[in-house]
């Protein structure tokens, strides 16, 4: 008797709940019409392609159906890590991304510190406006400018010759040893102004009373920078550093592809170029997909690691 | 230091004097150095553009002689004529404008619509949909699976491949959603009492109120669409009439770079120029295309500058 009663009650309750959910959904139908098609869209364009990862575990042949593909396990991954050219590509990617990371951070912080010292608002705005500018230009335009500036009769050689620093023009883009540095410098030129925005915003949030107190104590400009401004933006620096760990294999593609040439191939190729070359140009889809998966897996792992680090350091978490 | 404040004496008086003197001179030295640094920064950023503009207005045959800095030596409009007479660049310009306008409008409308639905706290699917979108910021399936998706959707070699795959951005959605969160809730409530549905509230109340943040997002989306070349490179390279301006510029860049590295090719290119086009060289054409490709951005961006910092700050606040 008791049992049936409770049973009845739960049935009635769940029915009522269902009814409530149903009426809730009905009352929110417009929100659903407005968002669910977009959900379907993102699933199609961002999640469905992950199905393509199966290619990395097959000897993929385009004309065959899925069930006719030959499964080969980790063969392509094994091949990658025994392949000298992939290891070289991996080295280049890591090297360039670490150079970009270090150069990008230090230059942006230094520029932000110096900009912060300019008291004339108009002059500060002008410098900022000009320094943001390259961020909005495409890499095509920027690499075009870089190539022109570094040509044997370009402005860089011109200046170096006039200052008597070199005897004859350097072939910047034909020698591998300069390539990583050129890519790093190009990134700095394009992004340094843009990267300062976030630091300047963090600096404007520092309590002015701290500077006044330091003035009374007779602190010099450098002392104030070192002991007030830098510690003030430290949380921003740390969170940005942690965030960039997730992009450690993203040295980029465009600069290396556009500035690279036959002479510097051994220094210029990154994982993305490797994927492009093996995948779309040579039709070795399985190998290229395996390289792509490797990149994504490392990125996600590093991101989770960074998230864990952020938690341990007591910073805001990313996920 | 603590000593002199309690017991003043001759030695400390000297120290105070020294401090005052240093206090006068140090800022002057610092400001001079800082100003010089900023001027160098401005020159390093602006000079390459000025030089490119000068080259684009100078006769190509004369530019080869070198020594061209801030003013054209043999002023001519020949380079621009050659660029627009060829038809290819003109057509690419039209395609670039079309994709930029269409992408920006669609992106703003759809992303804001999604952001509105995900800003409604009562919406039942709010959390799962938000999660699915945010996840796409951290990974993607990669080049090869992406390519196969476009192929399966029959988007290869169509204009729509420029627009459809990038209609919504998760990052922009978060920025807009945060902004909507700052709009007073009572506006939505009173509209609902007046009988407005969610779409009407979004379109007539929220969308117009989002103007400041939409200006920033529009700039980002438009610049991204205008600058992209990779989609043209991999998806539509076999249909010349769908080529974009940046992709045409990229082809010009890589052909002239190869010419730089290979004298025989350069000679061949010079031969095919013919007598009529004597004043035009690959270098001068490249300069004028660079100007054509960057002018729209240079025109728009100073007006948008005041929104950057706001937009970026909002973007750094997640959830």
From TrEMBL, chain A:
Is the keyword Transmembrane helix assigned to this protein? yes
User: What region holds the ABC transmembrane type-1 domain?
Assistant: 90-306
InterPro entries linked to this entry: MetI-like (IPR000515), MetI-like_sf (IPR035906)
Where in the cell does this protein reside? Cell membrane; Membrane
Entry keyword annotation includes DNA-binding: no
SUPFAM superfamilies linked: MetI-like
Give the record's keywords alphabetically.
Membrane, Transmembrane, Transmembrane helix, Transport
Q: How does it sit in the membrane?
A: Multi-pass membrane protein
Short name of one Pfam family: BPD_transp_1
Organism encoding this protein: Paenibacillus woosongensis
Family the UniProt entry places it in: Belongs to the binding-protein-dependent transport system permease family.
PROSITE patterns cross-referenced by the UniProt entry: ABC_TM1 (PS50928)
Major subcellular location class: membrane
Chain segments annotated as transmembrane: 31-52, 94-115, 136-156, 196-214, 226-249, 285-310
Q: Any idea what this protein is called?
A: Sugar ABC transporter permease
From TrEMBL, chain B:
Q: How does it sit in the membrane?
A: Multi-pass membrane protein
Keyword set, alphabetical order? Cell membrane, Membrane, Transmembrane, Transmembrane helix, Transport
Q: Where are the transmembrane segments?
A: 28-50, 89-116, 128-148, 160-180, 201-226, 283-303
Q: Which PROSITE patterns match?
A: ABC_TM1
Record InterPro entries: MetI-like (IPR000515), MetI-like_sf (IPR035906)
Cellular compartment(s):
Cell membrane
This protein's source sits in the domain of life called Bacteria
Q: Which Pfam families match?
A: BPD_transp_1
Q: Where is the ABC transmembrane type-1 domain?
A: 93-304
The main location class comes to: membrane
Stored SUPFAM superfamilies: MetI-like (SSF161098)
Signal peptide extent? none
Per the record, the similarity remark reads:
Belongs to the binding-protein-dependent transport system permease family.
What protein is this chain from?
Sugar ABC transporter permease
